[in-house]
Design brief:
This protein is α/β, with parallel strands linked by helices. Helix content is about 40%, strand content about 20%. The protein is built from nine helices and twelve strands. It has helices at about 20-30, 45-55, 80-85, 105-115, 130-145, 155-170, 225-230, 240-255, 260-275, and strands at about 5-10, 35-40, 60-65, 80, 90-95, 100-105, 125-130, 150-155, 175, 190, 210-215, 235. A six-stranded mixed beta sheet has the order 2-1-3-5-6-4. It has a six-stranded parallel beta sheet with strand order 9-8-7-10-11-12, sandwiched between helices. The N and C termini lie far apart (about 35 Å).
Length: about 280
């Protein structure tokens, strides 16, 4: 574990990523002075060539963000059951013999972030959005939610996709039009998976006694919806919570440590976000 190794996050765009901050904080706490973690602008077209350029034994692993989580699957030698379930890998562990193992730490990261806030089970839930993150949210809700999940989407095609994901993951999914999204707030657990700004219009519709909101965004933070939720006394789980928990699992897989330093990684992430806000 003391041998110098390289790791990085790939995506497009990538300049906003906090992954280098989190992973470098972990390396510092663990005494991995020879380890480095970079950031590379890589789109779907360049992904295969980038992977082929990596020297076996030099690289320990990669973190992947959009639009690469699904594009990487055909380029891997082995894929975990978790990643296969949602056809998306955000983690690639690079073995010394050149083999590439793909995993999805977003799903257990979501579950861990919810449990950290005392959310073990919910009778039912709602998902705002229907993109790639929404499928991971459904997979996490398969563990957390005991009943139906209502997905609020913008098109019939998206509704069909979410219903298909629900069938595949064993989660009963009912879809509703985005125009009815405020009705999601009746659920005890809401997961917002939409891009920045998409839920801003809903902030004024938060009820007086809201349940729990998991907003996967972390920059800018808080979102207007998360701020309104917190102001009314609801439980809020944020994107940084997810980012830290999934990064902990990545560090453990890439370095072989038994327990990554979650507290130090979160502190580094919070400090970086405060600096951006100045």
């Amino acid at each position: 574990m003391d041998r110098p190794r390289r790791a990085a996050v790939l995506g497009s765009p990538i300049t906003h990523s906090l992954s280098p901050v989190l992973h470098r904080a972990a390396y510092g706490e663990l005494g991995l002075t020879g380890w480095t973690y970079g950031r590379y602008e890589v789109d779907e077209r360049r992904l295969s060539g980038f992977l082929d350029s990596l020297q076996p034994g030099e690289w320990a692993g990669l973190s992947l963000t959009m639009p690469l989580k699904r594009a990487v699957i055909p380029l891997l030698d082995e894929v975990s059951a978790t990643a296969r379930a949602v056809e998306a890998a955000n983690t690639v562990v690079l073995h010394g013999d050149g083999r590439r193992f793909g995993d999805n730490t977003d799903i257990p990261g979501m579950v861990a972030a919810l449990r950290e806030r005392g959310i073990e089970k919910a009778e039912r839930a709602a998902v705002l959005g229907a993109g790639a993150t929404a499928s991971s949210a459904l997979a996490a809700l398969a563990t957390v939610c005991a009943g139906e999940v209502t997905a609020y989407v913008r098109s019939a095609a998206r509704a069909t996709e979410m219903e298909q994901w629900g069938e595949r993951l064993g989660v009963p999914v009912r879809c509703a039009d985005w125009s009815e999204a405020a009705a999601a707030f009746d659920a005890p657990l809401i997961v917002a998976t939409t891009p920045a700004g998409a839920t801003d219009e809903l902030a004024a519709r938060v009820p007086d006694r809201p349940g729990a909101l998991f907003d996967v965004l972390y920059d800018p933070w808080p979102t207007p919806l998360a701020a309104a939720w917190d102001a009314r006394g609801g439980t809020v789980v944020g994107g940084l919570d997810l980012l830290v928990h999934q990064a902990v699992l990545q560090v453990e897989q890439m370095t072989g440590v038994a327990r990554a330093p979650l507290a130090a990684m979160r502190e580094a992430g919070e400090a970086a976000l405060r600096t951006r806000a100045v």
